[in-house]
Amino acid sequence: MNPANLIKMANQIGAFFEAMPDREQAVKDVAAHIRNTWEPRMRVAILQYVREFGDAELKPIVRNALPIVKSAG
Amino acid sequence: MNDIDYGTPAVVADRQVTLDIDGIAVTVPAGTSVMRAAVEAGVMIPKLCATDALEPFGSCRLCLVEIEGRRGYPSSCTTPAEGGMKVRTQSAKLADLRRNVMELYISDHPLDCLTCAANGNCELQTMAGVVGLREVRYGMAGANHFTDVKKDESNPYFTYDPAKCIVCNRCVRACEEQQGTYALTISGRGFDSRVSAGQSQDFMDSECVSCGACVNACPTATLLEKTVIDKGQAEHSVTTTCAYCGVGCGFKAEMKGAEVVRMVPWKDGQANEGHACVKGRFAWGYATHPGRITKPMIRSRISDPWREVSWEEALTYAASEFRRIQDKYGRNSIGAMVSSRCTNEEDYLVQKLVRAAFGNNNVDTCARVCHSPTGYGLKQTLGESAGTQTFKSVEKADVIVVIGANPTDGHPVFASRLKRRLRAGAKLVVIDPREIALVNSPHVKATHHLKLRPGTNVAVLTALAHVIVSEGLLDEAFIAERCEAKAFAQWREFVARPANSPEAMEAATGVPVAEVRAAARLYATGGNAAIYYGLGVTEHSQGSTAVIGIANLAMATGNVGREGVGVNPLRGQNNVQGSCDMGSFPHELPGYRHVSDTITRELFGHAWGVEIQSEPGLRIPNMFEAALDGSFLGLYCQGEDPAQSDPNTQHVQSALPAMEFVVVQDLFLNETAKYAHVFLPGASFLEKDGTFTNAERRISRVRKVMPPLSGKSDWEVTMALANALGYKMDYAHPSEIMDEIARLTPTFAGVSYAKLDRLGSLQWPCNDDAPEGTPTMHVGEFVRGKGRFLITQYVPTTEKVTQRYPLILTTGRVLSQYNVGSQTRRTENVRFYDEDLLEIHPHDAEERGIVEGNWVGVVSRAGDTVLRATVTERMQPGVVYTTFHFPESGANVITTDNSDWATNCPEYKVTAVQLVRVDQPSEWQQRNAREDKKQHQLLARAGTA
């Protein structure tokens, strides 16, 4: 999977939820959206990319959400 | 075969009246005509100018009656029934009057009845018989008897023969009342009176949109289908459902044996109530087009010639290749795409095959690229992934907002209803970058046209909400009772911020503040307010957010849960709603239940005898991505053509050959089939049984009127493929598939073919709580309990205009063509529109030296193509537009991979482009033309091994 596309998609999801006033819930919602709609190889690919190249390209809300995505499997 | 014609439309009234007609007591709603009351009593009054699709006109004087206590002989079509009225429909005097009237008609009508194409279905002939006409005292040399009058054969589908016209006005009234186009009039006086299209033009040159309403209304052979002229009158009819847009019109396929003579809009069809458009009414000839492929074919490589094989060989080969790929690359290395042009039963079977026989969730539907944001947005806010109303509901709307939709072209039969309501006084707000026809057309004018810049829907919707909140226009009582308080408070605080005001948003949207404020006030305070939207809302990077914004507006103003209001997605294809309902998304089982839900998974797993994966599968764009990285290598594609319809064509064209094995099931060698290794011939809607679910959640029967040309209906092919894969499927008829759907899907629990046959159609949810379906949703309570407001932060698209790409391209469709055009391009509809054109504002054209008809290179970040320009003020400066009906245009070569944040629905509506004058096709077009020629040569070499 193209990491650039995945990062773009993740940041788009983050852009929607970061407008929500409850930050903690918004982070969970970003994670849940990725968890519920991304096929596993997409999740694996973005997590692997972040592991190898860091998370600088990601919005903060997505950075916070990815560990939840990871822990959820 | 013909339905009963009650002469005048049905009336809905609280009060009933009882009258006596020829000694028969009959009770009807007050306001019903005497003519209709008589038919209700079983008494047929002669008539010519009356028909129950049209308001009474009272011109033919055949329907005269006697009413006790009244002088003269009133026309029964224009006389309302009254309580206690005593009516005589037959008397010597009436018979005399009717014969005299008929004598006058016939004195000016050719008597070539035996060779007339309407013979056997001519109301004039029938009425002459009914009134007992035996002589014509005025002679037979009437001005129009013998035709030195030219017959107009310009329209590809029907002829106009003025010699046969009796000037009953039915066609003119049908064009006005039913269609709302006002293309016809009566020109001349006395014997010169004739129906005239436009300014005495040929039909083809006039404003006529070829909906066929005039042809349907004509009581003689004046306006007649060419197929009837060619083939003669039909001998039986079968009621079925149109295979084009999401309106889902009911039709009677009038047949001679297994040959269609004509398609007549079904009067009792609840979606269309006897109306049609040029596609459904006339453009069905593709079903027997010589380009149909009717034999299964296989090949090892896409550069090889095709080889015709038996069904068994094709399916065995397909199954063995899918298994080979799974054995080598893993269970998740294959998947399927299904189509919104297929039936519910077919879509259900394909997702079942994927989940049960492939053993994964890699199934997606072409709804991905049109209305997937509707599913997401409405589920999140209202609780159900579907529109809230019936089409008929618009008749009770006072304010109608049309956003990102062009109903006169995309959903023409609904547009006619909508225009009728507007003519009756409802107000219209159009939110669209283009001046669509509804903005200003005969007897219809939008009160407000918010001509926004493409990509700024969310900004406009949020600004509308800002006005409603800041000016105190909320329906506080509705919100308090029906919606989540905390979510509402957060939303209210958000939209009230100055940053969301029309003033702050104007720089982005280009919409004047006063227009936004006025539109918001009208929507909030104008009575019943309904929003209708289309792909101009969904096909954006913020498509889902815009759908949420629409739902927010409806909740904020209390415009949900009754007739005349609501949130109404206008679905693109006939079965978009159904394909989504049937579990065709990779994360949802039928009924929109997530695959991670253990109870649902076990329900289906138990029924299907398999274990269903709990992880979501790949969406269509993800499948292409995975193909390019080598992890998705086998595709079963039924009724869908992503190589033409999906964005960034070159990306798709690189992903398809990266797969080791592609199976395409279709009517024609479509663009995707050029990358296929197995071609399974599909069946048109005329060749199979099933159901479609339209945009109002209406499930309607599709009925087989002819045997499948390939020998198999599509559901039989999928079943055979499953069996070849070793997964047993054994259905004798699609009704059994629907029975299974009903057993496993709560919203479909009460659906059966028997009930559909009895009621005509059903709107889901249909279950014990609503055994005859649910016309209006969210009455009293939202499906999710309390409605949920969600914050809609405007996030500009990343597809920005720059010096290099200074214009925004947006895409759409025209009335006569449908989607990728694989059906309509193979009909006479190409006479109306035979190439995708680039619409450009005069200012932008002049700046680039472009004039009408020039070839223009359209260059985007994704690619370039060449289109012919048409210069029009319908566009706003800075925005250009094209359609995507013709593969050689390569409209999607220029659209990008940008997509909706929630669903990956492509952002077809916003592509930054530059235009240049050119004198030859683009490199892609030239390459594609060569490849197209090569693939057709490989097809021509197909032979039985």
List the helices and strands and how they pair.
The complex is a heterodimer of chains A (73) and B (945).
Chain A: H1 3-17, H2 23-37, H3 40-53, H4 60-72
Helix pairs in contact in A: 1-2, 2-4
Chain B: E1 16-21, E2 24-29, H1 34-40, E3 66-67, E4 86-88, H2 92-107, H3 123-130, E5 158-160, H4 170-179, E6 184-187, E7 194-197, H5 213-217, E8 223-225, H6 226-231, E9 236-241, E10 250-256, E11 259-265, H7 278-282, E12 297-298, E13 307-308, H8 311-329, E14 334-338, H9 344-358, E15 363-365, H10 372-381, E16 399-403, H11 407-410, H12 412-423, E17 427-431, E18 440-441, E19 444-445, E20 448-450, H13 457-470, H14 476-482, H15 485-495, H16 502-509, H17 513-525, E21 529-533, H18 535-538, H19 543-556, E22 566-569, H20 576-581, E23 588-589, E24 593-594, H21 598-608, H22 620-628, E25 634-638, H23 642-645, H24 649-655, E26 661-666, E27 678-681, E28 690-693, E29 698-702, H25 714-724, H26 734-744, H27 753-759, E30 761-763, E31 807-812, E32 837-840, H28 842-847, E33 855-860, E34 864-871, E35 879-883, H29 891-894, E36 911-917, H30 923-940, E37 943-944
Parallel strand pairs in B: 1-4, 13-37, 14-15, 14-25, 16-17, 16-21, 17-20, 21-22, 25-26, 26-27, 31-35, 32-34
Antiparallel strand pairs in B: 1-2, 3-4, 5-8, 6-7, 9-10, 10-11, 12-13, 12-27, 18-19, 23-24, 28-29, 29-30, 31-36, 33-34, 33-36
